[in-house]
Amino acid sequence: MRAHPAEDWTLASLAERAAMSVRTLQRQFRQSLGMSPVDWLVRERVELARQLLETSARPLAHVSSLAGFGSEESFRRHFRLATGVSPLAYRRQFGAAA
User: Which residue, 2, 42, 44, 75, could crosslink 69 as a Cys pair with Cβ 3.0–4.6 Å?
Assistant: First the structure.
C-alpha cells in the first residue's frame, strides 16, 4: 500500500492479498499497528501529500491525485484533520519557497 497509495485499495483486496478473511486482517492489523487498515492508509496518503507540498509546486488537484485521495474535498478534509491546517496553508509554511 505504501508503494502505491493511489491504488484503489479495499479491505477485500487487502485480505485476499494477505490470504486471510477481512475480519482477521482488520483484527491483526489493529493488534500490530494500533489502527485500522483504512486509518493507516489515510495517514500514509497524508504523509505523501505533505512531502509533495513541501517539495513541489504541483497544483493541489495533482497532489491529491498522486497521494490517492478520491477528490480534492476528501484530500482537504483528511489533511486538515491530520495536520490542523489546510494543504494551502501547509505549503505556504513549509513549501520549498517558504
Answer: 75
Cβ(46)–Cβ(40) under 8 Å? no
Is residue 17 within 8 A of residue 50, CB to CB? The reply is: no
Largest CA distance in the chain: 47
Alpha carbon distances (Å) from 37 to 25, 54, 74, 78: 8, 26, 17, 15
pLDDT in tens, the chain (98 residues): 888 888 888 999 999 999 999 999 999 999 999 999 999 999 999 999 999 999 999 999 999 999 999 899 999 999 999 999 999 999 999 987 65
Please count the CA atoms within 13 angstroms of the CA of 4 that sit on its side-chain side: 5
DSSP, collapsed to helix, strand or coil, labels residue 53 as helix
- The whole-model pTM stands at 0.88
